[in-house]
Amino acid sequence: DQDRVFTVLGEDLGKAKVAAGIYLSLPGVPFLYYGEEIGMTGSGAHENIRTPMQWTDGLNAGFSTGTPWQAVNGDYLTRNVADFEANPNSLLEWYKKLVHVRNGSSALRRGTHAPLGSSSTPVMAFARSDSLQTLLCLANTSGSTQSGLTVSGLDGVLAQGAHTLVDLLDPSHVMDVAVNPQGEITGLSLDGYGVRTYEVKRVSAVDPGTGDLPRTGLRLEQNHPNPFNPSTTIRYALPERSHVKIGVYDVAGREVALLADGIHEEGPGEVRWNGVDHRGQAMGAGVYFVRLETGHETRLAKMTLVK
User: Fold this and answer.
1) What is the dihedral sign for C-alpha 70, 73, 76, 81?
2) What single-letter DSSP state applies at residue 290?
3) Is 144 in a helix, a strand, or coil?
């Protein structure tokens, strides 16, 4: 029983769109409460946030031909599914686009998450990646355009050099960028309350003709298989000889298994988890997290144990 999101955001369409963009790009399983996709309002007592769904601008908002148990919100004449489906810029159509992109992107559904630095305080930047796809996600939480933006921390995500980015939310938006030796992309711009989900379509090698550059830096790949039962393989790659700790954690953040804790050489490696805890007892079905630590860097991935 919480106030509806659109009410909490002051009924601001821009804020609602960027909030949805962040929510549906982050790890985890998203849940959408009915009416959130059209910005239904409500606060306080539970009956105020459970008013009838606003389908049309007709009788009882198209919810029922009878008398609904709770009165329809007064804004149903202008805020309803039928009208929003006819408006390509509506909140409903934005949610549809976000869901479509998430369903079609393996990195958003099950990939790792790496927070990135941003030269602009209102801009949230992070990368989602798996063995099939790497995405650069940007979200401007302010209503003002952010120009001359620098995104940093990419040395463990994208190789140095030229890349072509395609926004999955707007495939007509294609841009060429370069990752400098400091692991930065500079000169980016983001509209007020803008959200971009860039897919890295190709990587140009520094020496033409040598093909795509491999991804460098600390890597933690998605476990395979996932979901799994009874065991799964976790692959990683180290940019240098390091002390490595790889642990498995439950959703409460408790370490349930330690898979590695020692010095490992540069390059690829892998460990297996057979679904048991420190004491050798089988863990229950559910979501777990594997965390790779090297002293100065950390990578996290989500995995699902099924029975």
Assistant:
1) negative
2) E
3) coil
Compute the distance between CA of residue 138 and CA of residue 127 in angstroms, rounded to an integer. 9
**Full-prediction pTM beyond 0.70?**
no
d(CA 284, CA 190): 44
Q: Phi/psi at 165 (nearest 5 deg)?
A: -115, 135
Residues β-bridged to residue 273 = 232
- Which residues on adjacent β-strands are paired with residue 178? 162
- Tens of pLDDT along 7-21? 999 999 999 999 999
Inter-CA distances, 305 with 181, 231, 232, 248, 290, Å: 39, 9, 9, 12, 12
Cα 214 to Cα 148, 205, 237, distances in angstroms: 28, 9, 11
Instruction: Quote the pLDDT of residue 203.
Output: 45
Q: Which of 119, 243, 117 is nearest to 127 (CA)?
A: 117
Across the range 265-283, mean pLDDT stands at 92
Residues 50-87: pLDDT tens digits?
999 999 999 999 999 999 989 999 999 999 999 999 99
Nearest-10 crossing angle of helices 13-23, 91-103: 10
100: helix, coil or strand?
helix
What is the 8-class DSSP label of residue 43?
Answer: -
Whether the bond into 171 is cis, omega within 30 of 0: no
3-state secondary structure of 7: helix
CA distance 258 to 249: 9
* HSE of 274, CA atoms in CB hemisphere, 13 A: 6
Neighbour tally for 236: CB within 10 Å: 22
